[in-house]
Amino acid sequence: MSRDPTGFLKEEYEQLVSAALDWRIHVLNGPSQPWCQVEGKKVLMFCSNNYLGLSTHPRVQAAAIAAIQSHGAGSGSVRPIAGTMDIHIELEERLARFKGAEASLVYQTGFATNAGLIPQLAGEGDLIVSDELNHGSIIDGVRLSKADKAVFRHTDVEDLERVLNDAEAHSTAYRRILVITDGVFSMDGDIAPLDRIARVGHDHGAMVYVDDAHGEGVLGTGGRGIVDHFHLSRDLVQVEMGTFSKAFGVVGGHVSGSKDLRNFALNKSRTWLLSGSHPPGVAAACLAAVDVLEKEEQHVRRLWENTRRFKKAMGAAGFDIGRSETPITPIIVGDSGKAKRLSDRLFELGVFALPIVFPMVAKDRARIRTIMNAAMTDSDVDFAIDAFVKAGKELAIV
Ligand SMILES: *Cc1c(COP(=O)(O)O)cnc(C)c1O
Fold first, then answer.
1. C-alpha 230 – ligand 1 centre gap (Å)
2. Ligand 1 pocket list (CB less than 6 A)
3. Closest approach atom of ligand 1 to CA 134
4. Whose CA is nearest to atom 2 of ligand 1?
5. Which sequence positions are flagged as catalytic?
6. CA 16–ligand 1 middle distance (angstroms)
7. Is residue 165 part of a domain?
């Protein structure tokens, strides 16, 4: 009897289910906005990356519709062949201006940016140095590289220096060194000390690459991101990567820096070269989102007002809200089961926020990860606080 070649599918899935590590998909019946329908129930959305509510901004929606009408539903090709339309170029020029960079390049997603670009920036004979808590797409990009790899302790600049000093003592000198960090870390909401990382990188002749997926639309003047937040020169942070899938409210990855970086990236990144380009509606929606960020500064201001209101009340109520400095606020409860029960109870009370448990965070650091939204009113924020306090008391968390 021959063995079933697909038996592992069910087996491995069932192992995940029995360890409670499987993903149960939550379906939204309609747009992602503060009050939305999840599994048919009206709840306050507290775990979306759509920080500024731009996914339902009228100008962003209208731009997508207009571009579908003028340019079609799909682009017809990959960017280097016949899939670059005027909207794609306009978006890149607008983004570069927004970022204050010489040039930008847009990829299909942030994941495709990291997976496509990182292995080209450093290869055989090079070294990549990465923060231990960097995002999975960075980890995969690093894995695709033939470079030597080293990690430094989370946000620990002295440890980064140690790694770079060790690299200098390496028997054969490295050709290039690439230092990579998230800008804002998505599990704890803490900010990378990019000013100090950039300085140390510079002193060791390394390139510095920041993934600002959670900093864009949040940090810096008008949401320009972490490089602007620290007023850093592009001579110190040469590669600023980001995504349109979070605060910009659409989808797409991007990288900003010098014209040389853009030319290099588009000629070398296999994800960019070999995968279809954004549909016109996506590119136009991204362009409109950049325009909204430039013209309507109230969204970023409102995001921070809501963030301060929430953190202040949650801290005062006795919750452990960690070391976040951003609109990502973890509500740390410790035990995984407790985090799941809290999430379930919050859902019953009308707040949608998911638990983050081991292995995504340490076993005793299970949490509900909340993400603030600029489109919430004061009373929406207060509704969430009340639900947390009620559920927290019932579960003896506060
Ligand atoms: C979400 C995220 C990405 C992936 O971006 P997508 O555009 O959604 O693929 C990359 N890096 C970080 C730090 C992220 O948070």
1. 21
2. 109-111, 135, 137, 182, 186, 211, 213-214, 243, 245, 253
3. 13
4. 213
5. 186, 214, 246
6. 24
7. yes
Q: Where does residue 31 fall: left (phi above 0), alpha (psi -120 to 50 degrees), or beta otherwise?
A: beta
Give yes or no: residues 273 and 334 share one domain.
Answer: no
Residue 155 lies in a domain: yes
pTM of the entire structure?
0.96
Say if residue 198 is in the same domain as residue 87: yes
Ligand 1 center from residue 183 Cα (angstroms): 11
Within the chain, which residues score under 50 in pLDDT? none
330 and 387 in a common domain: yes
Q: What is the CATH number of the domain that holds 368?
A: 3.90.1150.10
Q: For 260-285, how does the pLDDT look when each residue is reduced to its tens digit (9 = 90+)?
A: 999 999 999 999 999 999 999 999 99
Q: Which residue's CA lies nearest to atom 15 of ligand 1?
A: 213
Do 330 and 383 share a domain, yes or no?
A: yes
Atom of ligand 1 nearest to the CA of 49: 1
Atom 7, ligand 1: which residue's CA is nearest? Answer: 110
Residues 259 and 124 in one domain: yes
Whether residue 187 is found in the same domain as residue 319: no
**Ligand 1 atom having least distance to the Cα of 244:** 7
- Tokens for 166? 């060790």
242 and 282, same domain (yes or no)? yes
Mark which of 242, 261, 295 sits at the end of a domain: 295
Cα dist from 306 to 38, 223, 238, 303, 346, whole Å: 22, 15, 33, 5, 19
pLDDT score recorded for residue 174: 94
Do 289 and 371 lie in one domain? The reply is no
Q: Integer distance in angstroms from the first to the last C-alpha of the chain?
A: 59
- DSSP H helices, the chain, are 7-18, 58-71, 86-99, 110-121, 136-143, 157-168, 194-203, 226-229, 259-268, 270-273, 280-295, 298-316, 336-348, 378-394
pLDDT tens digits for range 222-267: 999 999 999 999 999 999 999 999 999 999 999 999 999 999 999 9
Strand order in the sheet with 239-243: 103-107, 253-257, 239-243, 207-211, 177-182, 127-131, 148-152
Candidate of 111, 216, 254, 269 to mutate for ligand 1, largest count of ligand atoms within 8 Å of Cβ = 111
Ligand 1, atom 5, lies closest to the CA of 110
266 lies in some domain: yes
Q: Which of 295, 312, 341 is the last residue in one of the domains?
A: 295
Could you tell me the CATH number of the domain that includes residue 118? 3.40.640.10
Residue-number span of the structural domain to which 290 is assigned: 58-295
